[in-house]
Amino acid sequence: MSAPDSPQPASDDDPSHVDKDTSHIPPLTTRVVIAEDEALIRLDLKEMLEEEGYAVVGEAGDGQRAVELAREHRPDLVILDVKMPVLDGISAAEKIAEESIAPVLMLTAFSQRDLVERARDAGAMAYLVKPFSKSDVVPAIEMAVSRFTELKALEKEVADLSQRLETRKLVDRAKSILQTEYGLNEPAAFRWIQKTSMDRRLSMQQVAEAVIQDAEEKKAAKGQ
């Protein structure tokens, strides 16, 4: 199978190009549940979110209450601290992910790889290392929401869980190539894969494999 037509490099003249200065701005209706056992951090986070136009619809000081609020409000995003009483953030994230309620953004004071991997395996879409600033929060939220959207799209396309995980790995590799080679951001790279899949009546896995194969062939040709 020949590789799909490559996307054009990002350009300010391209009307489909997302302006990097404004693409992070969330709609005013984005609804968020936050869970953090330290009240001061929770208050600071709430203020950051509201300043950026997010609506905080629920606050919790433990993981169990966070799950209950997520079920009650069905928000667009849930932000969880890793270490909380009653139910820790990773366990809460797992419950929220199992019910496919909303994307989860994890807060942690630790940047150890094993903890990050545990959070990801539990269903967290992105994470933030404390202390963080407002400029850190918004991109992390956008990343979590974008990845959750991708996951839902893959769930519709691939029913088998093991196959879905394999497809996700291939799509992630293809996105990385598109970002590096054509200057796309991560959401735009996924949209290109998804659109190409629909336009050419291929699965997203097939499109991702074609992107990877094309990149490997180009790399091999340069090495000759």
Automatic annotation (TrEMBL):
Record keywords: Cytoplasm, Phosphoprotein, Stress response, Transcription, Transcription antitermination, Transcription regulation, Two-component regulatory system
Regions of compositional bias (Basic and acidic residues) in chain numbering: 14-23
One term under GO cellular component: cytoplasm
Biased composition (Low complexity): 1-10
Pfam families: ANTAR (PF03861), Response_reg (PF00072)
In-chain residues carrying the UniProt-annotated modification 4-aspartylphosphate: 81
Subcellular location as annotated: Cytoplasm
Domain Response regulatory residues, every copy: 31-145
Annotated GO biological process: phosphorelay signal transduction system; transcription antitermination
Domain ANTAR: 151-212
Gene3D superfamilies (alphabetical): 3.40.50.2300, Winged helix-like DNA-binding domain superfamily/Winged helix DNA-binding domain
Source species, domain of life: Bacteria
Parts forming coiled coils: none
Gene Ontology molecular functions: RNA binding
Residues covered by region (Disordered): 1-25
Function according to Swiss-Prot or TrEMBL: In addition, the PdtaR/PdtaS two-component system controls copper and nitric oxide (NO) resistance downstream of the intramembrane protease Rip1. This coupled Rip1/PdtaS/PdtaR circuit controls NO resistance and acute lung infection in mice by relieving PdtaR/PdtaS-mediated repression of isonitrile chalkophore biosynthesis. Two signals are required to fully inactivate the PdtaR/PdtaS system and mediate NO resistance: a cytoplasmic inhibitory signal through the PdtaS kinase mediated by direct sensing of NO and the production of PPE1-5', an NO-induced small RNA, to sequester PdtaR.
PANTHER family xrefs: PTHR43367, TWO-COMPONENT RESPONSE REGULATOR-LIKE APRR6-RELATED
Protein name: Transcriptional regulatory protein PdtaR
Biological source species: Streptomyces inusitatus
